[in-house]
Write a structure and sequence with these properties.
Structural class: mainly beta
Oligomer: single chain
Strand order of the largest sheet: 5-4-7-8-9
Order of helices and strands: EEEHHEEEEEEEEEEEEEEEE
Low-confidence stretches: none
Number of helices: 2
Radius of gyration: 18 Å
Number of strands: 19
Largest sheet: 5 strands, antiparallel
Helix content: under 10%
Length: about 200
């Protein structure tokens, strides 16, 4: 599963010139990077695919506390990635991905779905693929602070006064503050101006 360098996600911090083809994540997710690009092109702890596979085989790489199994496995936005150190995948104001070294083991995940299951409980679905059963009062579009054990430590609603990061669209990578919310529209104060963004494009942080 590869793609041409020219067709690669513009958020990937890779050189414009190099091999013609690049690996892509198994799920083709636009807000994620494949493990190979993380360790070879961003962290420079492996020089090639063979060395990356060696790290995987020896269980030296983890995503959100779980061992990596495939060099194409996606590291999704805000996920924790453990290699030589612990990192969190984030976005620069330019919209490019970067791996931010971190100390803690919590992460922020956007709630993208809720499903009623047996016993009247609710299964919560997050943008990074995590699912869990919870009684937390939350809405689709809100964020949650998750522990490494996938326990909800805090809900961050998309509401007036909330800090947000734009995760897709023209303003991707920029931060702002919510002025007010009207349905799926979020009015955000950002860089001295007020803009209207769809809830799906923002992550409460």
């Amino acid at each position: 599963m590869h793609q041409t360098r020219s067709a690669a996600n513009k958020r990937l911090p890779i050189a414009r010139k190099g091999t013609r083809y690049l690996v892509r994540t198994r799920d083709h997710n636009e807000i994620s990077i494949p493990v190979l690009i993380a360790v070879r092109d961003m962290l420079h702890i492996a020089q090639n695919l063979k060395e990356t596979k060696h790290l995987i085989h020896n269980k030296k790489l983890k995503i959100n506390g779980k061992n990596v199994r495939d060099y194409r496995q996606p590291i999704r936005l805000m996920s924790l990635f453990e290699a030589d150190k612990k990192y969190k995948l984030s976005l620069l104001p330019t919209g490019k991905f970067f791996l931010d070294e971190c100390k803690d083991s919590t992460r922020i995940a956007k709630i993208t779905g809720k499903v009623l299951v047996a016993g009247g409980k609710v299964q919560i679905i997050f943008h990074d693929g995590t699912t869990l059963i919870s009684k937390e009062n939350c809405k689709i579009g809100d964020s949650a602070v998750l522990s490494e054990e996938n326990k909800i430590k805090k809900i961050i609603p998309v509401e007036k006064g909330a800090e947000i990061m734009v995760i897709s669209g023209k303003s991707v990578g920029k931060n702002g503050k919510v002025k007010h919310v009207e349905g799926k529209d979020v009015n955000v104060s950002m860089e001295g101006r007020e803009v209207v963004l769809k809830n799906k494009h923002v992550l409460a942080i």
